[in-house]
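SAMPLE LOG
Freezer: B-3
Tube label: C17
Construct: single chain, 163 aa
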Amino acid sequence: MEKMNNNRARSLRQVRSSRSRSKRGVSPVIGVILMVAATIVIAGVVMAMLGGFTPPSATPPSVAVTLQAVNSTHFKLVHSSGDTLLANEWQIGVCKAGESPTYKSVDRDFKVGQVFIVGNTTDLANPSGLSLPGTLSSDTYEVYIKHLPTDALIISGKRITVG
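STRUCTURE (predicted):
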């Protein structure tokens, strides 16, 4: 009986020691699994933030321009309200109604309250404007203003009759 008790005690010690060894072995494995899981979660959050980030798209300026005939060979654009059109960031196109416009770059700002003369500007006292080859004749024209950074038409086919 004593031998049986000794064997039983030994097997109990072995079971306890194997449990304690296995507990010690499980703890590092769980720690490694948790660290890997945390790394994956952090990487996912970073990718979601950076992958989903797109820079805001540029929007074209908003302007209100009125067209007024000056005489039979000129008309003017008056910047009534809205954003300033910055020099070299906009083009103006003028054509007879129904035709395709040819755009010219403009090297000066166009701010609220300013006037922009279209025609043969050498004839006029106000030299700021767009000089077209020859002069405008009595006809209906369409005006287009294009914003270059966004490649958007700010004004599209606004009509003016000259003459």
